[in-house]
Amino acid sequence: MPPVPLQNPDRDSLTDQELVDLASQRDEAAIRTITKRHNRRIYRVARAILRNDVEAEDVVQETYVRALSGLAGFRGEAALGTWLTRIAMNEALGRLRRQRPTVDWDTVGEQPRIQAEIIQFPTSAMTGDPERTMAQSEIRNVLEKAIDSLPDGFRMVFVTRIVEGMSVEETAEALGLRPETVKTRLHRARSLLRDTLEKELGPALTDTFPFDGRRCERMTDAVVRRLCAQK
Q1: How far is CA 130 from the centre of its chain?
Q2: Which pTM value belongs to this model?
Q3: Considering 104, 113, 121, 143, which has the largest number of Cβ atoms within 10 A of its Cβ?
Q4: Distance CA 62, CA 49 (A)
């Protein structure tokens, strides 16, 4: 028996299962709510696998098309986000296998590093301070590149656990790993990131708290004015 339509529901307040029931009837508002609720996680997971913004966006679209065309396959045994994540992962891994057919995905965590593009994380509100904004952008770029440089399996665990905030159990279920493996890979990912960031940021520390350019000129002008006023 099909689900009984809800009367004028507030879509944002509905559970995933209620949204699925409405989406199965092609309720546009429910579909939009589902995508809004899960877009970020699916994109980041796809991006962690493919390291390509455009392809990751394609995977997100394909994930929703497949999922929303086959909602009968959603039994509610797993969270909707986990189900969608698995679909996105399978799609992304399928694309990667076609690009890299010799990769042994049973040992994905041990793959060598390859050149990567940069994942765009959400940025904080503008501070109104150009110097601080530029510094934040540079630090974010260093972090993005460092994450992208992680071996595939470690990067996927780091993004799902730390960047996206999924629990150990959610990550294990989404990636098809044992919880112990998730913990081990996360520990290794953090260690690799720490080493990378030390190499990248170490030399930059000598240039922290600069006092040159406009600030230096402004201070010098003020000193000169005060000294001249004492004559």
Answers
A1: 26
A2: 0.60
A3: 143
A4: 15
Structure tokens at 104: 């042994």
Both tokens assigned to 110: 């041990």
* Length of the chain, in residues: 231
Phi and psi, residue 2, nearest 5°: -65, 155
User: How buried is 15 (Cβ within 10 angstroms: 0-12 exposed, 13-18 middle, 19+ buried)?
Assistant: exposed
- How confident is the prediction along the chain (231 residues), in pLDDT tens digits per residue? 455 444 556 788 888 888 888 888 888 888 888 888 888 888 888 888 888 888 989 899 989 988 888 877 777 667 888 889 889 988 988 888 887 665 554 444 444 333 333 334 444 444 555 655 666 677 777 788 888 889 988 998 998 888 888 889 988 888 889 999 999 999 999 999 888 888 877 665 555 555 566 766 776 777 777 767 765
**Structural domains of the chain, with CATH:** 1-102 (1.10.1740.10), 108-208 (1.10.10.10)
Do 89 and 49 meet the contact criterion of CB atoms below 8 Å apart? yes
Q: CA-CA distances (angstroms) from residue 213 to 63, 206, 218, 219, 220?
A: 50, 17, 9, 10, 11
CA gap 187, 131 in Å, rounded:
34
CA 176 to chain centre: 19
Instruction: Write out the two tokens for 96.
Output: 């990667």
Half-sphere exposure of 122 (CA within 13 A, CB side): 9
In 3-state terms, what secondary structure has residue 70? coil
CA dihedral sign, ordered 196, 202, 204, 209: positive
